[in-house]
Known about the structure:
Keywords: Membrane, Transmembrane, Transmembrane helix. It comes from Hamadaea flava. The chain crosses the membrane at residues 6-28. This is Secreted protein. There is one protein chain. This protein is mainly alpha-helical. It folds into two domains: 1-31; 33-62, no CATH class. 75% of the residues lie in helices and 0% in strands. The model has no long low-confidence stretch (mean pLDDT 79).
Amino acid sequence: MGEIxxxxxxxxxFGVTLAGFAWFAAYVRRRGLGGGVLGPxxxxxxxxxxxxxxxxxxxxxxxxxxxxxxxxQ
Length: 73
């Protein structure tokens, strides 16, 4: 196997790794798991993230109001 084969293996491995990260990111977003895993790290570097995360969680628990409940314009 020459230099071309080695390069092909490296590029292929890199592509598989990136595809794995993309799949994992989509999985975490779909399941809503990201806040629990990265929450403490986010709070260290951005202290206001703690409050924002609770606001987002509260909005998600409340859900979207139905169109009938919205006041007329």
